[in-house]
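TL;DR need structure tokens for one chain.
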Amino acid sequence: MSMNRRDFLKVTAGSSGGLVLSLSLPGCAGIQTGYDELDGSWTPDAWLELTTDDQVYFTLARVEMGQGTYTGLTTLIAEELGVTPASIKPRFAPAAPKYRNPLYNLQLTGGSTSLATSWQPLRVAGASARMMLIAAAASVWEISPTECRAVEGRVVHPNGRDNLAYGRLVELAAKQPVPKAPSLKPREEWKYIGKERGRLDAEAKSTGAPVYGIDVELDGMVYAVVSRPARYGARVKSYDDTAARQLPGVLDVFEIDRGVAVVADKYWRARKAQDALTIEWDNDGALDASSDQVFSSYHKAADEDPGESERSEGDFDDAQQGAERVLEASYEQPYLAHATLEPMNATAWYRDGAIDVWAPTQAPDLGRIAAARVTDLSPDEVTIHTTFLGGGFGRRLTNDYIEEAASVAYRIRKPVKLIWSREEDTRHDVYRPAMLHRMRASVSGDRLTGWHHQIVGPQILDWYVRNAAPAQYPWAPKFLYGTLGRVGLMAEGIATPKDHSAIEGAIEYPYRVPNLDIRHTHTDPGVPVSWWRSVGFSHNGFAVETFMDELAHEVDQDPYRFRRSLIDHEPRHLGVLDRVAQLAQWDSAALEGRARGVALFRSFGTYVAQVVEASVEFGEIRVHRVFCAVDCGQVVNPDIVRDQIEGGIIFGLTAALYGNITLEDGQVQQSNFHDYSLMRHDQRPEVVVDIIDSNESPTGVGEPGVPPVIPALGNALFALTGKRQRSLPLKATV
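>> reply
TL;DR here they are.
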């Protein structure tokens, strides 16, 4: 295409300023699939938009819950497009199949996959747009595109003086063919990727500008709260709302599937009315287990069922029989809540035969199913408006709060904001599973000859498939939802992905040992569970790395060097292990009254090694310093990597020191931060994070800081006290 300057000016002068170039991005075809360079095909995932008034919009297909997608993914587009990251306006994607995460075939943010799955597709999209804009400018100047370059939103003529803003070129660029294999910028030309830069949303968050779910305000909005049974599985038997209805501002009181809803003109009036309700619950068939019973059932299941083999190499039984000694240990870890600082909430408005939902959800397409399930609407009649999230950690992958808001709004026919109290958020969470680990190792001399790991506990997919399966087939009628869920479970590992939630981190056991036997005994006591920050890696990390520490002491070897001798075939593992030993000055003595522990773990493709320095002071565990080396491949934003790793460390230490959801007669005993504590600022250790320089494709950082810090702390306490702790939370005295 060729166009002279006069014709070009006529075209651009008559443009409307609206959208004229829209590029379909490659689908978040993650690490496993990626962009097909052979035929240039991709699956639409998100939209890059350039307008004639020089605006650049990037529709973010992953939610922002503090992990940095708003900045990181925008940086990828900016680098290849040739604009500053701050000049791009991100906006959250609506629920739609084209925004699905291909690793799960669902539109969700989790598993530390956002950057890893977007690394190639977003750069390809930005580069494609840049090349089309350059081609458009070259056609105006009647020169070769190779003579032009794109600089900060403009295409520059080879004379260095003439230039054309992207906004003036979009109409012409839209007529250019989309490059099948666009040239990506080489690393040495990067201006933004890998550089120290702040977050794009930092200023807005500092001034309170972003809208979180709990901030949503609509004209005529009313408020709802829900009373739920204390025991999971119980239902309303009867209720008396006489006193509640007489209170000021109360609009309605009625039963929904999950309890009794109260609607009022103000939030606190709804709470007051809730207190005035009298509800009798039908506990027939409800959960009645205690925490002691849960673990008793786990041990019984482990005795009766050796479990399904998940990884087997060599012959552990032979190794055990021929060993000089066999070591055994069992590790127990409790249920854990998510404790997001923004409690569960959603705003819904049913009108004109459709419902709009504003919610801080990690899974918008599952939110559509949740709202459709409790109304007479189809998923196509449900619109999800995703907001900023005040923490997620996997909790907001389950959309029970959207079900409740939709149920209320469908009856009230007004915009309704439903808010959970902190107590409700704690007692009606979907928890990180409690797990049991039985370990055995065969040792001859100072050599580890065999490793046996039996993991005992539930699978999360059993609980999650209820809405996940219908979300994969949104065209299916609602009467098939239950069938889709059952089929999804039956086809697990065949037609649907295998659920690795119980075994992840264990089956990737990295140490060199000739005989491996890793098994999962599937048992479920009926406590609702879901994903939690680092999921199975969190409990498997504690079991694996604590047992490795026990083995090191058994063969009278230094814990760092023992690991090193078994990992020298894994260069990236070895790299972070050696680096953290240097950071912590492992071979120097700790300060008096302190001790160090080390742990190494790979999760979500990221290699992490940590050393924790701790003491016991005034009857309490004190964590003084945490050293961390991380290899997450190519880094997009070093500041965010450090933030996320440090956040994961604090999250893991919180679980190690305080995390414990206990049950009595099927009821959760904890209710708020006074009895389900978070690590406070004055308890926070000094954290040193060192990032390994790498040319590998980037991997996740939101969760990998969690798994190694828990065993590293336990190992430090053993070094300090000589007493081994095999259950969590850790205690100052054993």
